[in-house]
Write the structure tokens for this entry.
Amino acid sequence: MKAILDHVGIAVKDLESALQFYRDGLGLEVEQPEDVPSQRVRAHFLPVGQPRLELLVATSPDSPVARFIEKRGPGLHHITLRVDDINAALRQLKARGAKLIDNEARPGAEGSLVAFIHPSSAQGVLVELKQSAVVNQSAIRNLQSAIQRYTVGDLELISVSDGTFRLDGGSMFGVIPKTMWSEKAPPDERNRILLAMRPLVVRGARTMIIDAGAGDKENEKFRDIYGLDRSRHLDHTLAEAGLAPEDIDIVLATHLHFDHAGGFTVRDAGGRLRPRFPRAQYVVRRGEWEDATHPNARTRASYLLDNYVPLAEAGVLQLVDDDHTIMPGVRVRRTGGHTPHHQMVVIESGGQTAAFVADLIPTTAHVPDVWVMGYDLFPLDTMAAKREFVKEAIEKKILVFFEHDPMIAAGYLTEANGKRGVIQQS
Ligand SMILES: [Zn+2]
Ligand SMILES: [Zn+2]
């Protein structure tokens, strides 16, 4: 069992005097308080590095915190350790004779699951175990497995999933300090954050899929490095959408990084690589193809030849030179930045517009201009392309798809008082 210190809880009798010390005296920031009805307390979190302090104020005289203060006065109340699988941790402790206050995990603050261990089993310290909402795997899988359908004029859009993977949080947010990004995307014990892979199916004159996730050709070491979880993947979600690989007419690539193009090819029983969508034409931008087939030391880890060279060999590759209509209502637009020829896809029909922006804005956390990935080869180009697109997206009410966001497939962008936001659309 691995555990990370999440926070230290302090029972508070008089909030004003507590704030005088912690907020005004020490200058700590106090987050918006949150009521925890099951414990009849109001929790005020104060970030102090990665872990936080939690000031606990009873909201009812029969609250456990009220009883604690009555008995011992205000003071150190509990420490909270974050674990990946709280039920497994409870079973393990129980098997070793620990006295549990909660035999089963129950809902805590911020959508987490929590359980308390009796101080008599922990050297007199009340220990709380916590499983963050974000690492609640079954909840995440449910969010992913729910394919999401949208209508744009005459076109049907279906957000599908090829599972999740993990990338270094620092690399995902470039110059943004960890204290800022870790609040939006909590890192695991290897400093990686959870990311989805959400290709988009567009059904109109023809059936198209934009990008295809990581696929399953890679070995155990690769799967471990990138934390690939494909227990529910593209085959499952396509089937849920009523589609088989044979139904896809066009596969469109935003760019050829492995988390977008890995699913373009499969290895057959004889070990040979072949196109994964047997009837499809694969459309790739020529500049991206050139870069991907001639990787350099900086780009080599993301460009894996097995994902796309077999397409040329099979004669199903179609290279496009510039911004172009791929099928009625669907055109590509170069953004550059992430890779020099990275392109987004604009979908327009019946006066409505949607955009599949791929790694221009990979998650909802990347909506502000400066939140640009360290992976981007030309970050200033990303910023310029993003600024222009966000303005257009707000003006035209464009439905924006976030290919890597673990929770939100699509939404509308907003801006108020210089602050950008996303209104989720499901
Ligand atoms: Zn990429
Ligand atoms: Zn990507």
